Amino acid sequence: xxxxxxxxxxxxxxxxxxxxxxxxxxxxxxxxxxxxxxxxxxxxxxxxxxxxxxxxxxxxxxxxxxxxxxxxxxxxxxxxxxxxxxxxxxxxxxxxxxxxxxxxxxxxxxxxxxxxxxxxxxxxxxxxxxxxxxxxxxxxxxxxxxxxxxxxxxxxxxxxxxxxxxxxxxxxxxxxxxxxxxxxxxxxxxxxxxxxxxxxxxxxxxxxxxxxxxxxxxxxxxxxxxxxxxxxxxxxxxxxxxxxxxxxxxxxxxxxxxxxxxxxxxxxxxxxxxxxxxxxxxxxxxxxxxxxxxxxxxxxxxxxxxxxxxxxxxxxxxxxxxxxxxxxxxxxxxxxxxxxxxxxxxxxxxxxxxxxxxxxxxxxxxxxxxxxxxxxxxxxxxxxxxxxxxxxxxxxxxxxxxxxxxxxxxxxxxxxxxxxxxxxxxxxxxxxxxxxxxxxxxxx
Length: 444
Hints:
Blueprint: H1 2-6, H2 15-29, H3 32-40, H4 47-69, E1 75-77, H5 81-90, H6 97-116, H7 119-126, H8 129-150, E2 154-157, E3 161-164, H9 170-187, H10 193-204, E4 209-211, E5 214-215, H11 245-277, H12 289-306, E6 311-313, H13 317-322, H14 328-348, H15 353-368, H16 379-394, H17 398-415, H18 424-437
Antiparallel strand pairs: 1-6, 2-3, 4-5
Helix pairs in contact: 2-14, 3-4, 4-12, 4-14, 6-11, 6-12, 7-18, 8-11, 8-15, 8-16, 8-17, 9-10, 9-15, 10-15, 11-17, 16-17, 17-18
């Protein structure tokens, strides 16, 4: 049944490899079960309900993607977007969280319309092939940066923006040892290298001091828990902003920002992960792109109904791809583990950041290998590509990286009299990004 449903033989994979890859993806993104509720709870939403909703929306959206596309791409409430939801929309603009959920719903409906009409596919096609490769590389750097940050290897510094952490501290030393261990296992082609590394580091963390008498891996009082009711946040969205002219003009730029970030974060992740998995064709087109875009647009609507910020495709899916995942069975496994986590949350949450961070660093290395496919000898190709690669991690936004790269490519094409180098849709997207970056929308 699994062979027929997920076409395992056609994708040169096995059930065992897919299950292992699904576990790897889950381990890399399980942090969202704790982090998303912690961020959204600042709006006044019930934290216990948010834990349940985070797991449920991740499981349903991931399963939807698996069944519609057979791609190994997992979804969950997006990092960055949840912070925008909380600190900009709710706390910054004073919008009640129920109204903010309504904005997410409207954003999802627009997403869906753009998907079923084929507009989103045209936007993907409008991104030059070299920029698609650059997005993959930029996401690789982004993932590695996040891994080093989560492991404490990189920390904030007021003078230099970033600096290295204390290499003698337990968590940082364990993370660095994990990078070395994972690299060696991968180089020696050990099956399940990433999963083995995460498991070994989690166990080792029981004996490594984290400061203050604590250990890096802290064993819970119990390994089982019953999920909290989602009722306090589920189906609580409201739409009062649609009934007032003043309110709708306040809401429009917020919805537009949600739309741009969601749209290009999802497109960037889709391009990056599928290219690494070998699905992106030589001409830059992606099979079943329409289904993938449909899945994540439906997921956005479901997230608003369930009571959380936007669910998006996760760049951590790349860790499952590097573990051998090639079909929807990988992420079906991830979805099942998300549901299981509702009852095993204390056990899941003992996996420390120092154990998952090395996996992200190594996955970043894998994704950066695609840079050799960019013709860096051609400056008109190199400039937008390198700008994209740098901007994605440095702005902490896939969407901003794509936007800066497209604007650069469009300006070079026009300035050199080679306007046909980009499509009309490509220029239109570049203009939209320009208007958004400089905040000159007429309704602001």
